[in-house]
Specification:
With about 100 residues, the protein is an all-alpha fold. It has four helices and no strands. The radius of gyration is 24 Å and the shape is elongated.
Length: about 100
């Protein structure tokens, strides 16, 4: 009764193949889900995300995932720079005190 359900993970290739079944081969989301053994809402979500990413690319922008990766990278870099600044402040205070 207390079994914990685990969330199923799907590879990028699997998602792309599921999207192709619907968009290129004419399957409905329900039929593709039934054939692949997954819930049709997963396929619907993947198709929505795919189309949104394609629109972003067509507009000359980056995909949402690329933007999220960039934000993550910039936050990490910002944190590192803030630490460096604090170290430099402490060093400047130390040397100012030493020269007095």
């Amino acid at each position: 009764m207390n079994e914990k359900s685990t969330r199923q993970k799907f590879t990028k290739e699997f998602k792309e193949d599921a999207i192709k079944l619907v968009l290129e081969h004419g399957y409905s989301g329900s039929e593709a889900g039934r054939r692949l053994g997954i819930h049709p809402s997963n396929i619907s979500r993947w198709i929505r995300e795919f189309r949104r990413d394609q629109e972003d690319i067509a507009e000359g922008g980056a995909t949402r995932r690329e933007l999220e990766d960039e934000v993550r990278r910039l936050r990490k870099e910002n944190k590192r720079l803030e630490m460096e600044r604090e170290i430099l402040k402490k060093a400047a205070a130390f040397f100012a005190k030493e020269s007095s």
